């Protein structure tokens, strides 16, 4: 049984289908690497998180973190759905969100290493909800736009990440570049007061890809943020960031959104705040696949390498963060399986899609779909080795 099977993603007589469409046939039309995204799945994912926010009884805005996937047709569909605003982290993302139909007041900006020209862009968009990532940003906002309402990004020195990975943890025992630490909070309040900035919001993003297994740690970190909030009298909104994860491997227990929402309601009960969130991956990742063609197979010593016509530069997460993408043949022929290593077409040793995988025989011309490629794939891709060409297509 395929652990990733869902109503809209499964094998039908050996042929992989997504959103009711035959993946192999769609990829054949493209010729080269192609990302396919299911719009219905994206909207359903967004609706699920929005409902979980509402279930807290303190539900504020859902923002979609478009760094995960900024393909304009998807952004337009999300904007039109009215399910969410947008979370952006650069002037380019900000302008793209507006061009795709998100109203200025429904855009939240949480950037790092914010430059003078970034501040110019923010000053031109007074309705954007700006979260300050550090004292320097707060000081600069105060100089440019005194009196502006702002949020503070908090760093509770506790965090979470998929599989407890340190690389995916954005706040923890290791000092990170993100947010304002507890011992900096008084100075932040003083800086804001000096420029008449109103701190109306706190924001925290504790890490990426957390699942049910990380919920205890997540609640502890969120509780530390709630304690910091007690020192900020004017705050009316708590943005709990993104990082909501989804299963990447057989055996991963999915995030229990009911527990997430009940935990939030408990942690922030009795405070006059709305709760918002800004997930990216959770909304788009499992709605997309990257389809690559097999270039050939060759045994070297004890390993059978199957080559694909796309490498880690098209979807860097598996190589950078060990977030595996399940490879599924677009057409599965009956017969004996073999153990293979799937290799990309980039001259880098880390360019492997998976090692020791049990797959049906694959030959030149076959196609393989890499699941969970809807987030941080195309958005993070590069033209390394001049192998950066791909298509993207949204399925209704
Ligand atoms: C501030 C902030 N918000 C939201 C996100 C989205 O995270 P995810 O896609 O894991 O939900 C990120 C990702 O790095 C982030 O840094």
Gist of the model:
The protein has helices at 23-30, 39-55, 72-81, 91-99, 116-123, 135-144, 185-194, 215-229, 257-267, 281-284, 317-321; strands spanning 9-12, 15-18, 21-22, 34-38, 59-65, 85-88, 107-110, 129-132, 149-155, 180-181, 198-203, 237-239, 274-277, 288-300, 303-308, 327-329, 338-343, 352-359, 367-370, 391-395. With 396 residues, it is of the alpha/beta class.
Identify the notable features of this structure and list them briefly.
27% helix; 8-stranded parallel β-barrel; 8-stranded mixed β-sheet; 26% strand; 396 residues; binds pyridoxal-5'-phosphate; alpha/beta; TIM Barrel; elongated; Lyase, Ornithine Decarboxylase, Chain A, domain 1; 11 helices
Structure description:
It is a single chain. The chain contains eleven helices and 20 strands. By secondary structure, the protein is an alpha/beta fold. It has two domains: 9-38 and 285-395, Lyase, Ornithine Decarboxylase, Chain A, domain 1, CATH 2.40.37.10; 39-284, Alanine racemase (TIM Barrel, Alpha-Beta Barrel), CATH 3.20.20. Strands 4, 14, 15, 16, 17, 18, 19 and 20 form an eight-stranded mixed sheet that branches. Strands 5-6-7-8-9-11-12-13 form an eight-stranded parallel barrel, surrounded by five helices. The longest helix has 17 residues, at 39-55. It is elongated and about 70 Å long. Residues 65, 68, 87, 110, 205, 208, 241-244, 278-282 line the site of pyridoxal-5'-phosphate.
């Amino acid at each position: 049984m395929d652990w990733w099977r869902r109503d809209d993603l499964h094998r039908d007589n050996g042929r992989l289908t997504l959103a009711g469409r035959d993946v192999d046939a769609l990829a054949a039309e493209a010729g080269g690497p192609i990302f396919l995204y299911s719009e219905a799945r994206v909207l359903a994912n967004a609706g699920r998180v929005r409902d979980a926010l509402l279930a807290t009884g303190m539900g504020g805005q859902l923002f979609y973190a478009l760094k995960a996937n900024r393909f304009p047709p998807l952004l337009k569909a999300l904007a039109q759905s009215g399910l969410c605003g947008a979370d952006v982290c650069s002037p380019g993302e900000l302008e793209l969100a507006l061009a795709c139909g998100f109203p200025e007041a429904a855009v939240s900006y949480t950037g790092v290493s914010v430059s003078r020209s970034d501040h110019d862009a923010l000053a031109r968009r007074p309705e954007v909800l700006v979260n300050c990532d550090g004292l320097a940003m707060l000081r600069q906002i105060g100089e440019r736009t005194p009196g502006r309402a702002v949020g503070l990004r908090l760093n509770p020195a506790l965090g979470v990440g998929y599989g407890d990975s340190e690389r995916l943890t954005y706040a923890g025992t290791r000092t990170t570049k993100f947010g304002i630490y507890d011992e900096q909070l008084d100075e932040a309040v003083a800086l804001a007061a000096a420029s008449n900035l109103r701190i109306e919001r706190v924001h925290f993003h504790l890490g990426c890809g957390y699942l049910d297994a990380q919920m205890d740690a997540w609640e502890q970190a969120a509780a530390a943020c709630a304690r910091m909030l007690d020192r900020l009298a004017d705050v009316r909104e708590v943005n709990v960031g993104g990082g909501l994860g989804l299963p990447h491997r057989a055996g991963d227990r999915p995030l229990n959104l009911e527990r997430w929402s009940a935990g939030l309601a408990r942690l922030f009960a009795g405070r006059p705040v709305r709760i918002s969130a800004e997930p990216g991956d959770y909304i788009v990742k499992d709605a997309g696949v990257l389809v690559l063609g097999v270039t050939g197979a060759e045994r070297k010593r004890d390993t059978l390498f199957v080559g694909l016509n796309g490498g880690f530069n098209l979807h860097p997460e598996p190589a950078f963060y060990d977030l595996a993408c399940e490879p599924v043949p677009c057409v599965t022929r009956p017969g004996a399986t073999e153990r293979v290593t799937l290799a990309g077409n980039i001259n880098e040793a880390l360019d492997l899609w998976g090692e020791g995988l049990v797959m049906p025989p694959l030959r030149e011309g076959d196609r393989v779909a890499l699941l969970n490629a809807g987030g941080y794939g195309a958005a993070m891709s590069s033209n390394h080795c001049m192998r950066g060409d791909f298509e993207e297509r949204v399925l209704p």
